[in-house]
Amino acid sequence: MHGTAPRWLAWSWVVPAAFLACFLAYPLAVLATRVATVDGLTKLMSATTWHVVPLAVLQAAISTVLAVVIGLPIANAVSRYEFRSRALAQALVTVPFVLPTVVVALSFRSLLGSGVPQGFALVVVAHVYVNIAVVVRIVGAQWAQQDGDFEAVARTLGATAWSAFRTVTLPTLRPAIVSSASVVFVFSFTSLGIVLLLGDASTRTLESQILRQTSVLLDFPGATASALAQLALVSVILVAGAIATRRTPRRRMRPVFRHPLPGAGAGRTTLLAVIVLAYAIVIAPVAALVVSSLRASGSWSLAWWTGIGSVDASTSRIGSPLSALATSVGFAMVCALVACVVGGLAAVAVLTRGRTRVVSLLAIVPLGISSATLGLGTLLAFSRPPTDLRGTWLLVPIAHSLIAVPLVVAVVAPALRSTDGRVQAVAASLGAAPTRAFLTAYGPVLRVVMLASAGLACAVSLGEFGAASFLARTGSPTVPVQIVRLLSRPGEQSYGSAAVLAVILVALTLGIVLAVDRLGETTRRGAAQA
Amino acid sequence: MNPSRLETVDLAIGYPGRPVAAGLDLSLKEGEILGILGPSGCGKSTLLGTIAGVVPALGGRILIDGTDVTDLPIHRRGVGLIFQEPLLFPHLDVLGNVTYGLRRQRTPRADAESRARQLLEWLHLGEYERANVNELSGGQAQRVALARALAPRPAVLLLDEPFSALDADLRTRLAQEVSQMLRDQQVAVIHVTHDPQEARAMADRVVTMSTLGRFDPQ
C-alpha cells in the first residue's frame, strides 16, 4: 500500500467484521451451544440424524458423475472451438446455474411431470441440469487455456486423437474436473428446493431434513444436529477437493493455434450435435415452464398472468403473487445495499498489506455453510429478547446479504488488486487529499464492480429459497417461498400462478445476469485498451 | 540424388475465411536447419502448424521423404514440434515425457527408457530423469522438450520460437548448442524466430517469411 492511502482504509475491516460476528458467528455459536448439551449430542449421534445420509450421498454421487460426463463434451465444444454463436452458447450453458432452484424444479415438473414420477430420478436429472454449467465453466476455462496445445504436442509424438485425450488431456484436466466435481457434489448433497419439489418421501437431503424437523416436527435440537452433521460432511468434501487440486501449477498460456470448427467430416458432425444438444437441454425445461404459465383448462390462456394481482381463494392466506414479487424485489434491494457496503469494505481491505489472505478466506468460508443452516441459526439466534427480530422484515435480507457478501468480495477484490495503484501516488503528488487520491485511482473500477456486485446480490436474493423458507413471515413470503407454498396446494390455478411467478423470476434473473455480464465486458475492454 | 526430407509445393496456409499465405515452396534436406525470420503474427506458427498437421492446409501439398502427407492425420506424419513454452506434460516426470512418443509407437518400455536416457545424457540432463517437470529451469525444460520431440525419431523437427522465453545470453548459447546437436541427427529442421541473432546462431540458411510465398492472398 502507498503512504498516500486514506487513513480510514486501515479500518475498513471493522464493519464487515462486526456484521459477520453478529449475523454469522453468533447464530452459528447459538447452533453449537444447542448441540453441546446431552440431549443435543444424543441427537447428533442418533440414527434419525444420519439415516438420510447414505441415499443423499448416492444421489449426489450419481448427479456428479452424470454432470461431469455430460459437461465434458460441452466444455470441449464451447470452450475450445471457434464458431459464430460461441459467446451465446457459453452464456446459455451458464443459465441453468443462475436460475433459482425452485424455478428449475418447477420447470422439470412442467417438462417431465406426467412422464417421470417424482423421486430419486427426477431429482438427479434436475441436479445434472443445474450443474453442467459448473463443469463447463471450471473445466472449460482450463481446457481453453492450454490443453489444446498439449494435445497437439501429443499428436505430433504419435498419439491418436483418443490416445492423446486419454493420456494427456484428461490427466492435465484432472484438477479442474476434481474441483468442479467437488462443487457439484456439495451442491447436490445440500440441495433443498429441488429435493422438496421433485423428491418423494425417501429422497431427502440433510438440508430438507433440517427444514422438515424445524417446520413440521418442531424438533429444533434434531434440526441443529442435522445442520452440524451436514456442516461436517461438506467441510470434509471441500477440504478433500482442495487437497486433490492443491498441486496445480496454474500458468496462463496463450494457445498457439486457433481451433476453428472442422470444415467437414465426423468431427464436425459430432461437435455440432453436442452444441445443438446443449442448446436443447438448456432451453427445453424453461420453454415448458413458459408453456405451463400460458395453459389453462387444456387451452391457451392468459388467465394466470392477468390474475397475478388478485387475492383469491387459493392465495388469500399468503397474499397475491404480485405482493410476493413486491416483497422479493424490496428484499433484493436491501440485500444489494447491505452486501455491497459490507462486501465492498471487506474487499477494500485487500489493498492493506497482510490482509489479502483474510479477505480471500472471507470470500470462501460462508459458501460452505448451507442456507438452511444459516436460516435455522438466524431463526434461533434472533427469536428471543433482547434480539427478537422475528416481528420485523429484517431477517430475510440479512440472511441473503450473508450469502451475497462472499460473491461481492470475489468480484471486487480481484478487480482492485489488478488496478494500478500508482495512480494514487501520482494524484497525491499533484495535491489530491488521501481520499480524493484513492478515489482517483480506484473510483472508476469501483463504480463498475460495485454495480455488478449489486446486480449479483439482487439475483441471489431473488432466487434464494433455503434461508427464506425459515425466515419469511407467513403473510409476506418471497417469490420462491410462495412458489413452493402454491405447489403444495392442489388445483390448476395454484400451479398456473406458480408458473407465472417462476417465469417472471427467470426474466428478472437473466436480465440481471446479462446486464452484469455486459458490465464485465465493458471493464475488460477498458482494461485491454489501458 | 539426395531427396528432400521435407518439401512443400504451392502450400496455402491460414484458417477458413482467413487465409494467411499461399504459394509457399520449401525444400529441406536431411540434417539441414532452415531459419525463418518474421515479425510476430506474420503466420510463422500457422506455417509450422500446417506442416505438422495441427492446422489443415488450405491448398497445395506437403511431402515428407517423398510421400504426400497433406491429408495424413498428425500422429502419422513423423513431425516433431517445439513451442516457445516447453509444454511438458505436467502429470509425467522427465522420463515419462521423453518416452511418451515411443510408448505411443508401442516401443517396449525398457527400449523406450534406454533411448530416452541416451537423449537425456546427450542433453546433459541425465540426473533429472525422475524430476518433476514443474521444478526444472526454463532452459532445462526446453531441452527436455527437445529430447521428447527427438525420441520417436521424427523426419522433420519444427521449432517455433523455442528459446524466446529465455534470457538473451542463455538464448544464444542454447541455440548454438542445440544446433550442433541437431546436425548429428538425420532430421530436417525449421526454426522460426523474430530474433536475427538467434536465427544465425542456429541455422544453415536464414530466409525471411515474406520471401517464401504470396502473403495476404485475399
What this model shows, in words?
- The complex is a heterodimer of chains A (530) and B (218).
- Helix content of chain A is 73%, strand content 1%.
- Chain A is mainly α.
- Chain A has a two-stranded antiparallel sheet.
- In chain A, strand 1 (295-296) and strand 2 (299-300) form a beta hairpin.
- Chain B has six helices and ten strands.
- Chain B starts with 5 loop residues before the first strand and ends with a strand.
- The mean pLDDT of chain B is 88.
- Classes of the chains: A mainly alpha (530), B alpha/beta (218).
- Chains A and B meet through helix 7 and helix 8 of A and helix 1, strand 6 and helix 2 of B.
Overall CATH class of chain A:
Mainly Alpha
List how many beta strands of chain B DSSP finds: 10
What is the structural class of chain A?
mainly alpha
**How would the global form of chain A be characterised?**
globular
The averaged pLDDT of chain A comes out at 83
Sketch the major β-sheet of chain B: 5 strands, antiparallel
Share in helix of chain B: 25-40%
What characteristics describe this protein?
heterodimer, A: 530 residues, mainly alpha, MetI-like fold, two-stranded antiparallel sheet, 1% strand, globular, B: 218 residues, alpha/beta, five-stranded antiparallel β-sheet, 6 helices
